[in-house]
Amino acid sequence: MIAFVRGEVAEVGLTSAVVEVGGVGLEVMCTPGTLATLRPGRSATLPTSMVVREDSLTLFGFLDADEKTTFELVQTASGVGPKLAQAMLAVLSPDDLRAAVASEDVKTLTRVPGIGQKGAQRIILELRDRIGAPVGSARPAGAPAPAADWRTQVQQGLVGLGWSAKEADKAVDAVADQAGPAPDVGSLLRSALQTLSRA
């Protein structure tokens, strides 16, 4: 299995990045928060998890080892596949996820697109003895995005997670006042997702 990739970022897309490793471009599926930290032409190191299916090999990339471990652990809950695990990490940091499971906070888990009331209860039941307590490490903040760029990145992230372009645009407008001079795309994406879950 491929534990991590290190190389020059060749391309950053809506849901993935291409990292050049030894002359080969590896496509790595990432959350919008992770993608916001990557810049084409710059070197990057991403811990990775490979998901093998009959018809595909998919590489998922993360900001750090904690995200990777959490991604792999949540998939041990029934009904949680790699896409849903990635959506969970797009909305919640590993610590937020551990806190939600430990405190049996169904409401927080249902903020993730694709997780309903019953799904959240099942995840809590199956993971609470294994996921551990919050460790107090905040997710590393993404590199500040230029003022105009954050809107595009958040909108594309929401569309990539299954919301319509119209819904995504409304959510971006709703969180615009939180952007400030140095927007943190990961935080703004989480706020936009909270706005959508309340709607």
Automatic annotation (TrEMBL):
Pfam families: HHH_5, RuvA_C, RuvA_N
SMART domains membership: HhH1
GO terms for biological process, alphabetical: DNA recombination; DNA repair
Domain Helix-hairpin-helix DNA-binding motif class as annotated: residue spans: 72-91, 107-126
Top-level taxon of origin: Bacteria
GO molecular function terms attached to this record: ATP binding; four-way junction DNA binding; four-way junction helicase activity
Signal peptide, first to last residue: none
Keyword entries, A-Z: Cytoplasm, DNA damage, DNA recombination, DNA repair, DNA-binding
Annotated region described as Domain III, given as residue ranges: 146-199
GO cellular component, one term: Holliday junction helicase complex
SUPFAM superfamilies referenced in this protein's UniProt entry, alphabetically: DNA helicase RuvA subunit, C-terminal domain, Nucleic acid-binding proteins, RuvA domain 2-like
Quaternary structure and partners: Homotetramer. Forms an RuvA(8)-RuvB(12)-Holliday junction (HJ) complex. HJ DNA is sandwiched between 2 RuvA tetramers; dsDNA enters through RuvA and exits via RuvB. An RuvB hexamer assembles on each DNA strand where it exits the tetramer. Each RuvB hexamer is contacted by two RuvA subunits (via domain III) on 2 adjacent RuvB subunits; this complex drives branch migration. In the full resolvosome a probable DNA-RuvA(4)-RuvB(12)-RuvC(2) complex forms which resolves the HJ.
Function: The RuvA-RuvB-RuvC complex processes Holliday junction (HJ) DNA during genetic recombination and DNA repair, while the RuvA-RuvB complex plays an important role in the rescue of blocked DNA replication forks via replication fork reversal (RFR). RuvA specifically binds to HJ cruciform DNA, conferring on it an open structure. The RuvB hexamer acts as an ATP-dependent pump, pulling dsDNA into and through the RuvAB complex. HJ branch migration allows RuvC to scan DNA until it finds its consensus sequence, where it cleaves and resolves the cruciform DNA.
Domain note: Has three domains with a flexible linker between the domains II and III and assumes an 'L' shape. Domain III is highly mobile and contacts RuvB.
Family indicated by similarity: Belongs to the RuvA family.
Name recorded for this polypeptide: Holliday junction branch migration complex subunit RuvA
Chain's gene name: ruvA
